[in-house]
Amino acid sequence: MRLSVLFTLSTIYVALGVILPTKRATICNGHAELCTRPYGNTTFLGSHDSYAFSSDPLALARDQEVDIPTQLGLGVRFLQAEGHLNDGVLHFCHTSCLLFDGGTVVDYLATVKTWLDANPNEVLTLLFTNSDGLSIPDVWAPTFVAAGIDTVSYVPPTNPMTRSDWPTLGEMIDSGKRVITFMDAGADGTDGAPVDYILPEFTMLWEPPFDSTEPSFPCSVDRIAGPLSTVDHLNMLNHNLDINVFDTGVLVSDPEDASTTNGVASILADANGCAPLAGGVAPNFVMLDFVNIGAGLQAIQLYERKCFGVILLV
Known about the structure:
314 residues, alpha/beta, ten-stranded mixed β-sheet, two-stranded antiparallel ribbon, 18% strand, disordered N terminus
């Protein structure tokens, strides 16, 4: 009886042209304060080579110890991965897919979509590497469609969009479009026609050097593209330390020092080193190896307090 009354009232409201109130998110990425925080003014914990997880200490090519759902459960809201064809199928793997194969991109994205469905008030960013120049519309986009990620993907009204023009997390969640995907190459139309929800990275997000073997993480603007100014870009920390194996030039991640590298002092020093290049603002993404080790979220909390005057775990 009650349901039929509600249905009848709804029908009457629609017939009369009455606009029913829209439900608004009151908790965004775990915090009420973040609902009114612009995406471009928020810092997210990130996972480098998120697909390359193994608990086996002899798996030297691993960069993470825990799987994607566990990473997300730890507070990661920025997932980075590298795509290559393996027997004609798009996989997330290291360059040859021989050193470490994280499985198909469709399976990876399906795992992400399952988590998103279970966590409807979360905004998530994806950064994918397309070093082989694979077609965005023909190779990459079908994996998004197959996994259903395209249906929750955000499309900016302008491209590129300045850091200050991004909507709030609450607005993204309310719209149902709460996944932002950046691609490092090809999304500008050089690898097939552009796909509106797969965004070119460097026109909107600049990076400092990667694969650092120096624990001080010297900062510079390493990769960027116009037409926006540097300070109008989003920015990130490539805060993952590598070891140069016997000075051979072969680089592997450093799990032994991860507790120090992912510690508050190291992350804050890196952020402070990059801040002048970003107009004095906090990084948008702090990307780590071995996200289950150290104090990545605590570092973000402290830096958010310093920059924005509130305590937020993103």
